[in-house]
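[agent] plan:
  1. take the single chain provided in the ticket
  2. run structure prediction with default settings
  3. attach structure tokens to the ticket
  4. add a short note for the reviewer (M.T.)
[agent] executing step 1
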Amino acid sequence: MFRFFNPFFLMPCLICLYDVLSMICPLRFSLWAKIPMALLITAGLAKIFMLRMTPAGFEVYELPRPAALILSGLFSFMVCALFMLIVKDVIFLVWKVIVRQAFPAHYASLCVMILAACATIWGAYQGTRVPDVLTHEVRIKNLGPEFDGMKAAMLVDIHVGSVNRREFVRAVVDKTNALSPDVILIPGDFVDGQVRNRSGDLEPLRDLRAKYGVLAVTGNHEYYYDLAGWLKTIEGFGVKWLENENVILTSGDSRLAIAGVPDPTGGNRNTPKALAGISEGIPIILMDHQPRFAGENAELGVNLQLSGHTHGGQMPGIRQLVARSNGGFVRGWYDVGGMKLYNSPGTSQWDGFIVRLFDPSEISLFILRAE
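[agent] step 2 finished; step 3 output follows
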């Protein structure tokens, strides 16, 4: 019973209750019509409660993809409706004070229901499609001439799970390889599930091709499942983990350092150690899954930080909340103490909330230029 008092489970229950009270109860339908509507909304909680908390992390109950899409869609509908209902209820309060007439609660609630359904359907399509490539030209101080024009592709927050599976990963790999990148960087959150269930879905990663290879760090979601198992499995796909370490890329007389730190969820994040041994004057690109450490990384001499984690917020309303909990960083470019930070919106999204509204996912391609 402890799960009902855990914020991870309690908040969705409160959202569901608010949706039913504010959207279903005001409708001028019969009780027998309202009950199925309320039960349908409540079914959106199933996706959350199918996550079983264990001492080792989360255990996910596996579902066929159509069932996972339906349950994730219902939960996403709950969240979309929440923000619209808040607006509706604020209007109701203002209406009561200024207009002093009966508020059209039935039509307002019906309008929210229709709008939330449309937003969910469109947002789910945007959230589950293969992302477009977004190209960024970035100038880096002290970048050697041999690396001027270098192409670095970034995939982050792939979140392979019960919705986006092997076919999605295959399409992302093919699209990334078509860019002919010199190096591929993956700053965490590969999976949502156990190795025995999801390793086959991630297996196409072994076909990623780049001159300097595929480098990665852990995200917080790797720690929710079998971390050791996933580290070994993903390494078997040809991905090199950077755990508080760096590699020096060499081309002619030019040098470029790519460093990586594990997500702080593991408790062993150590940026000074990750940057150890890098000679002065060598430009540094750092993979750090969460953007909130940008200030600290800038002080240590990092030139470019690449992060994910926030998913760009995925939709208005959530975006502002995500920014507040991530040091103000949520999506795009930031200048932090002279260091450039790029916070990617992610290549996919978490299975539980599959909607993207005005916040598309992307495969990021960086063209490095000498400053």
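[agent] step 4 note for reviewer: The radius of gyration is 23 Å.
[agent] ticket updated
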